[in-house]
Write a structure and sequence with these properties.
Length: 265
């Protein structure tokens, strides 16, 4: 499931993101003041997405969480598309914005990548919001500003920096997506990783007895490790994803260092 940002009314959505309007302010005159706020609705929606996933999100479900009907929310948030924009930008506020630079940009960037990957794993629904069209909210820009401040001392030109930042997000999001999905798979399928690998490995050996001859390079990558949970209960795919994340990040940062050296030379 992929969700594209910015599908609602552009002016209303951007005004809510940047807090330049107060929904419901037109409700003047006698009677009780509105009992909801945009912040309350967004927080409730994030709680729903964290607990049940993006597929469970609806104005009705969010309303029920707040003890209201779904229709009661439309005074504050015009539709679900705008709500997703607000959720996405709000939850990004969890990410740290300050990193120590004394140890150099590479150390700071490694810490940023680890923090960001952990953030995505905590909120896997965020990974379903497509990067093709940014939300353009303040916290999204703050996230980008943080990365660029870390990379500032490299002296790389703007075009190269854009590519480096895009590559960084791809590495971090890709690893976090695999980790999150490895945690979701047993509950979603009713089959543990250990059961899944055991059944299919046995079938592969039976149905493709010449596998090693046909795919020798693939076989050479086998580490012989257990494909079930680790000693700490970490799923096999999560362990592999974490290793891939560490290696991929190291290789990418090596490349950035090489680009910095070329630019300096």
């Amino acid at each position: 499931m992929v969700v594209f940002a910015g599908q609602g009314d552009a002016r209303r959505s951007m005004a809510l993101l940047w807090h330049t309007t107060e929904p419901g302010e037109a409700r003047t005159g006698p009677g009780p003041k509105p009992g909801l706020t945009v912040d309350m609705i967004v927080d409730a929606a994030i709680a729903v997405a964290d607990a049940e996933g993006m597929a469970a999100l609806s104005m009705r479900v969010v309303g029920e969480r707040l003890g209201r009907t779904g229709m009661a929310l439309y005074t504050y948030v015009p539709n679900k598309s705008v709500l997703v924009d607000l959720m996405y930008d709000r939850v990004l506020a969890e990410l740290p914005t300050g990193y120590e630079h004394e140890a150099g940009w590479r150390t700071a960037l490694t810490s940023w990548a680890e923090d960001t990957a952990a953030f995505y794993v905590r909120h896997p629904w965020v990974l379903q919001v497509s990067q093709a069209r940014p939300v353009l909210g303040p916290n999204e820009f703050s996230t980008l500003e943080t990365v660029l401040r870390i990379l500032g001392p490299t002296g790389l030109e703007a075009e190269t920096l854009r590519s480096v930042v895009a590559a960084l997000f791809n590495v971090v999001r890709g690893a976090a997506k695999t980790i999150a999905e490895s945690r979701q798979a047993p509950a979603a399928t009713g089959v543990t990783d250990e059961e899944w690998w055991h059944d299919r490995s046995a079938l592969l050996a039976e149905l493709a007895p010449d596998f090693a001859e046909r795919f020798p390079m693939v076989v050479s990558l086998e580490g012989g490790g257990e494909q079930g949970p680790g000693d700490d209960g970490t799923p096999f795919l999560e362990r592999q994803a974490r290793k891939a994340f560490a290696t991929g990040l190291t290789v990418l940062l090596d490349g950035v260092e090489a680009a910095v050296s070329r630019a300096a030379g």
